[in-house]
Amino acid sequence: MTIRILIAEDETLLRMAFSTVLEAQPDMAPVGEAANGTEAIRLARELRPDVVLMDVRMPGTDGIEATRQVIRISPQSRVLILTTFDLDEYAFAGLNAGASGFLLKNARPAELLTAIRSVAAGDAVVSPRITRRLLESFRPHIPDGRSADRDERLSRLSAREREVLIQVGCGLSNPEIAAALYLAEATVKSHLGRILQKLELRDRIQAVIFACESRLIRPA
């Protein structure tokens, strides 16, 4: 399968650099370029890309609002936020808007390509640090008095899948979960895929939030 990619970046040289890297991959095809958020929204509506590389700071409509609009008009598109700044507010705002990943622009080409393939496959690309900060931010807003057993969706999971979901909810990466539960990393990935499918969740970030809301993990 060829991953169709829309590049939304206001700097011309960066757009050219991204396009050059992507064109060299046999499983990727840049299908459009946007210099601002408004163009990104228009092109997403016309092209329905698999993945959108979305800059945060752009003139006019910024990348956060553009992400929100792209997800609304093209739900099958995955957005990978690109930014120069490793700031939590950008990560949180982008993820809240529906992005599936967050990556710094100074990432190596191999990291960028891996991230694109991951979000195209339905996974989320967010560092464990950001996941844990998201969890810390979200926990105080979880209402008390709910039991995990009250969410009927949890009955769809096996005991092992619940264990994996708890670890995901605590912000652990796949290798960390594998070590904690004495599983192979590939097994953890398979469990997570089934969890997302059974719970009808979009990605890992939604799994973290679900684990909080369903009371599988307790607020600190």
In short:
By secondary structure, the chain is α/β, with parallel strands linked by helices. The chain is built from 10 helices and 5 strands, in the order E-H-E-H-E-H-E-H-E-H-H-H-H-H-H. The N and C termini lie far apart (43 Å).
Q: If you had to describe this structure to a student in words, what would you say it looks like?
A:
It is a single chain. With 220 residues, the chain is of the alpha/beta class. It has ten helices and five strands. It has helices at 12-23, 37-47, 63-73, 88-96, 109-120, 128-138, 159-169, 174-181, 185-199, 204-213, and strands at residues 3-8, 28-34, 51-55, 78-83, 101-104. A five-stranded parallel β-sheet has the order 2-1-3-4-5, sandwiched between helices. Helix 1 (12-23) links the parallel strand 1 and strand 2 (28-34). Helix 3 (63-73) runs parallel beside helix 4 (88-96), helix 7 crosses helix 9 (185-199) and helix 8 packs across helix 9 (185-199). The termini are far apart.
What's the layout of helices and strands?
Layout: E1 3-8, H1 12-23, E2 28-34, H2 37-47, E3 51-55, H3 63-73, E4 78-83, H4 88-96, E5 101-104, H5 109-120, H6 128-138, H7 159-169, H8 174-181, H9 185-199, H10 204-213
Helix pairs in contact: 2-3, 3-4, 7-9, 7-10, 8-9
